[in-house]
Amino acid sequence: MGVYSDEINIKTDGEVDIVDITGEIQNIVYKSKLNDVIACIFVPGSTGAITTIEYEPGLMKDLPRALETIAPKGIYYNHHETWHDDNGHSHVRASLMGPSITVPFQNKKLVHGTWQQIVFVELDTSPRNREIIVQIVGE
Questions:
Q1: Where are the domains of the chain?
Q2: Where are the extended beta strands (E) located within 1-128?
Q3: Which of 85, 90, 60 is nearest to 73 (CA)?
Q4: Rg (CA), the chain
């Protein structure tokens, strides 16, 4: 049993920027020299999320619209009183989506659906530099 850790650094364009990180995750698994693994992909912070999606233009519009319906920007959030900022909805959205996922790899290849990619979703209101932690456990 082995453990390997690495990170991905990305710059986002701000709110609801969806970044496909599937290739970077696959490269980290290759570098790990492990064959059959579980990879945990995690973003530190409370305004980013990791999920899977079919990375295509329609869903790049649909996901932000759904998030606006679930946790709209234009309503009052108590969080704004704490820090006097404008990202209460960002925190709520990130809490609902989650900061990490765990995915399996067999023979160093990601086990996923044909149209399923791993993505980082920026939920903060400004562009950010993000560090995504990838920790791999396996043989």
A1: 19-132
A2: 2-11, 18-20, 37-42, 48-53, 100-106, 109-110, 117-122
A3: 90
A4: 16
Are 117 and 53 in contact by the 8 Å Cβ rule? The answer is yes
Closest-CA residue to 121 (of 80, 70, 83): 70
Residue 17 backbone class (left: φ over 0; alpha: ψ -120 to 50; beta: rest): beta
Q: What dihedral do alpha carbons 56, 42, 101, 65 form, nearest 10°?
A: -40
pLDDT in tens, 3-45: 999 999 999 999 999 999 999 999 999 999 999 999 999 999 9
Q: Please name which of 8, 10, 79, 5 lies closest in space to residue 46, comparing C-alpha atoms.
A: 79
The pLDDT tens digits for 16-26 are 999 999 999 99
* β-strands 18-20, 48-53 pairing: unpaired
| Residue in the block written with tokens 């409370």 | 46
Token output for 135 = 């920790």
pTM over 0.85: yes
CATH of domain 19-132: 2.60.120.460
DSSP structural state of residue 35: S
